[in-house]
Design goal:
Layout lengths: L4 H13 L24 E2 L9 E2 L6 E6 H7 L4 H4 L6 E4 L8 E4 L11 E5 L2 E2 L5 E2 L2 E2 L10 E8 L13 E7 L7 E9 L4 E12 L2 E12 L10 E14 L2 E14 L5 E2 L15 E9 L5 E9 L4 E17 L2 E13 L2 E12 L13 E3 L5 E3 L3 E26 L3 E21 L2 E4 L29 E23 L2 E21 L6 E21 L2 E12 L3 H6 L1 H5 L6 E13 L3 E18 L6 E19 L2 E14 L15 E12 L5 E11 L2 E2 L7 E2 L2 E12 L2 E8 L7 E3 L9 E4 L4 E9 L1
Parallel strand pairs: 6-11
Antiparallel strand pairs: 1-2, 3-10, 4-5, 6-7, 8-9, 10-11, 12-13, 12-44, 13-14, 14-15, 15-16, 16-20, 17-43, 18-19, 20-21, 21-25, 22-25, 23-24, 25-26, 25-27, 26-28, 28-29, 29-30, 30-31, 31-32, 32-33, 33-34, 34-35, 35-36, 36-37, 37-40, 38-39, 40-41, 41-44, 42-43
């Protein structure tokens, strides 16, 4: 792959913006509401070539959020925003990146294997999940986002990267005829300092620009005691209206990271984080080849305060052309390049009293000192924590080309999607030593002598286990798709088929690195299809029925985890079959989108991290999604609900509930907007979320209790000045999102973020 992808993007943008003169601009923005409907929403995700259609006409389940709705959510991360999409179980408790996101009924429990994040119609990274990296970690929400569209199931398996689960498409704002802008300052009760800016305007006739970004710093919602969350981002979006279409170029550069929040002892409060100023710098054992066919250990210093983040860029270009006589052509191209690293203290086992440990002679340890010399009594709680270091360098390129022909009664689209991606990485995980339990808790000092913790001595790599990885991989996927729409009276029939080929090369030296690499080569084919009928039986009402069959190819980590199965002949492909029936209602004062869904998956890996326990699951789920709004004068009520029965249907866990997913989840949003006599615009809004009981593991050993979370906010606008106050988790609920994924019986738990308050002051010009 070219090592300077942004140069390619700039070159392609220049070509696109100079492309023939003139296309009637196909606005992807939401049109002005009609006289009969409050929300005449337009969507582009899940359509052949990204063509715009009315949400009411869509024969699939899709949710849209405008920039104003995004602002009212006041998300702490990209994953946090996704809680507004029905059918998702989002664990954004890990910080600014590194979420776990599960889709309705699909197995998961770690990262986000069935979630693709796209920007302007193309995935930010074609593989939805690598170990310690899921798509939402590569994207940051700011003022440059016009809207987001979240498509579950539906035609997803046929288009773009063939994601059978969720595709979340973030669409950038565009330039304006007049120069307009916004500056916004945000602070908080956890000392957040953030400045956002946005500027839009016109460069020349028919050429427009949008640029914006942010600079941010804070100790984190869980106060690390230093500037643990730091970042900045800049986005540029250029568009040109052509005589017969539209062309555009975008570039986004991001450097943003924050503390990796991990499960902690269940006795600790929700604002706990182990990392702090006294322990953030630590020596980590790195295994490497000794030159004689074995392995040796080298100690290197790392800063656990780096946490998780993304330092990279995403660039792209697109052109949409009306070729005349019903023919149209669309091409989208994107490049991603950067580093997505993970560093943090990971617990191993439950906390114990110091005097419950024994020395080399088997005698209890009555007292100790920390590495800085502080005294530690025998009744002090200590716990094993491992400084984990994961370095990932990724690159990706994607292109989606489609050509369509429209007739009065039909439309046919043919497309070619191609993508290639790489990863170069190394890990050092495990590496546990005993630390004083608590924020900024230091490591216990030891020389390994009598009366001391033997494994804490210098030169001892771990008190538990360790596992190192050095790997590189590259993959390429080519897919042809064909889609047809046929209109018969009030009925629309649509069909789609995708034929894909993926070639993967992956080499890994893991365990104790000795310089011996195991290589995997795969060349897999797959076919996906979708079919639907949509019945518009009234101007504001309709229904649809859809089936689809898709798949998920194996990604790099699957070959390492299931190398034996692969060599024995398994293709490691996960097969997914789905059926949906939807009802759609959209009128002047209300809207309701309800979808009954059924899905089956076969072959999902289920692994206990840090052990050799791995199985492949089959699952089955039935449920309903509700997505609605009610407008009553100045009052708006929103509903987002999912009810499901999702269970494992194979193996030792047959009959168990799919891990980390509740049987019900409900989110109610309320907004009251009015204008004072002096012309000041006011808004009060809030949200109440109820998440049902779940299990932390596939064995259903550990129960995660149900919880209710309340958010509240208010805005005041005086001419061009706006003030917003947002309170997240108003009641300071300690909702558990996960137990200990490495040990279900350990007394560790990760809570949702504690109560936090943000205050923003913005000025529009």
């Amino acid at each position: 792959m070219n090592k300077n992808p942004l140069a390619q993007a700039v070159s392609l943008a220049a070509i696109s913006l100079g492309f023939s003169g003139g296309l009637v601009a196909q606005q992807a923005s939401q049109p002005t509401p009609s006289d009969t409907m409050v929300m005449e929403e337009v969507v582009t995700t899940g359509t052949p070539g990204g063509a715009s259609i009315r949400k009411l006409d869509a024969s699939f389940s899709i949710t849209t959020l405008s920039d104003d709705e995004i602002s009212k959510v006041s998300p702490a991360s990209t994953a946090d925003l996704m809680k507004s999409i029905p059918g998702l179980w989002v664990e954004s408790s890990g910080g600014v990146s590194g979420a776990n996101i599960d889709v309705r009924g699909f197995p998961g429990g770690s990262d986000a294997p069935f979630v693709t994040v796209s920007m302007n119609g193309l995935p930010v990274y074609p593989a939805p999940t690598l170990s310690f990296l899921e798509n939402s970690s590569l994207f940051r929400v700011d003022e440059t986002i016009q809207r987001v569209e979240g498509l579950r199931g539906g035609p997803n398996p046929v288009y773009s990267n063939g994601q059978p689960g969720l595709t979340t498409n973030f669409i950038l704002k565009e330039g304006t005829e007049e120069t307009e802008g916004r500056v916004k300052y945000t602070s908080s009760d956890y000392d957040l300092q953030r400045m956002d800016a946005l500027l839009t305007g016109k460069l020349s006739d028919d050429v427009y620009y949008m640029m914006g970004g942010y600079v941010s710093s804070s100790p984190g919602v869980r106060d690390a005691g230093f500037s643990a969350e730091e970042g900045h981002q800049f986005t540029l979006h250029l568009t040109a209206e052509l005589d017969n279409g539209k062309a555009g170029f975008y570039l986004r550069d991001t450097d943003d990271h924050g503390t990796w929040y991990l499960p902690g002892a269940s006795t600790l409060p929700a604002d706990y984080t182990q990392v702090g100023p006294s322990n953030r710098k630590v020596l980590v054992p790195i295994s490497q080849a000794d030159g004689s066919g074995g392995s040796e250990t080298e100690w290197q210093s790392f800063d656990m305060g780096e946490g998780r983040g993304w330092d990279g860029s995403i660039g792209g270009a697109y052109v949409e052309l009306d070729l005349g006589d019903g023919w149209s052509l669309t091409d989208r191209f994107a490049l991603t390049s950067g580093n997505a690293d993970t560093l943090g203290f990971v617990p191993n086992g439950s906390p114990v009293r110091l005097d419950s440990l024994t020395d080399l002679n088997g005698d209890p340890i009555a007292s100790a000192t920390t590495v800085s010399g502080s005294a530690v009594s025998g009744d002090t709680l200590v716990q094993q924590f491992g400084p984990w270091v994961v370095r990932k360098e990724i690159e990706a390129a994607s292109n989606d080309l489609s050509i369509a022909k429209q007739w009065d009664s039909a439309k046919i689209t043919a497309g070619y999607y191609a993508s290639s991606w790489e990863v170069n990485e190394w890990w050092s995980i495990g590496n546990q030593k005993y630390y004083v339990l608590g924020h900024d808790g230091e490591q216990i000092a030891s020389s390994g002598a009598a009366g001391e913790i033997e494994c804490n001595a210098a030169g001892m790599a771990t008190c538990g286990w360790n596992y190192d990885v050095e790997a590189n991989g590259n993959a390429r996927e080519d897919a042809l798709y064909l889609a047809g729409e046929f209109y018969v009276g009030d009925f629309t029939f649509d069909l789609g088929v995708r034929s894909a080929n993926r070639e993967t090369n992956y080499s890994v030296d893991d365990g104790a690195r000795d310089g011996v690499f195991t290589s995997y080569k795969a060349d897999e084919d797959g076919t996906a299809y979708t079919a639907a009928v949509d019945w518009a039986f009234a101007d504001n009402m309709g229904s649809f029925f859809r089936i689809n069959s898709g798949f998920k190819f194996a990604d790099f980590d699957n070959y390492r985890e299931f190398g034996g199965s692969f060599r024995a002949g398994s293709d490691l492909v996960i097969d997914v079959d789905q059926a949906e029936w939807g009802y759609k209602l959209q009128d002047e004062n209300y809207s309701l989108f309800a979808t009954l869904f059924y899905n089956e998956t076969q072959g999902m890996p289920d692994c206990v991290v840090g052990s050799d326990v791995c199985t492949r699951l089959e699952t089955e789920a039935t449920g309903v999604e509700l997505d609605g709004k009610l407008y009553w004068g100045d009052f708006t009520l929103g509903l987002n609900a999912t009810i499901q029965d999702a269970e494992i249907t194979s193996g030792d866990f047959e009959g168990n509930q799919v891990q980390r997913q509740p049987e019900h989840q409900l989110r109610l949003t309320q907004s009251y907007d009015w204008t004072l006599n002096n012309g000041v615009d006011m808004s009060l809004y809030g949200a109440v979320s109820r998440v049902g009981e779940r299990y932390s593991d596939s064995a259903n050993i550990t129960t995660l209790p149900a919880y209710t979370k309340v958010d509240f906010g208010t805005t005041m606008t005086i001419n061009d000045l706006s003030v917003q106050l947002a309170v997240n988790n108003l009641t300071d609920e300690e909702g558990a999102t996960e137990g200990d994924p490495r040990d279900p019986l350990a007394a560790n738990v990760r809570y949702i973020l504690p109560r936090n308050i943000r205050l923003s002051v913005g000025y529009d010009f």
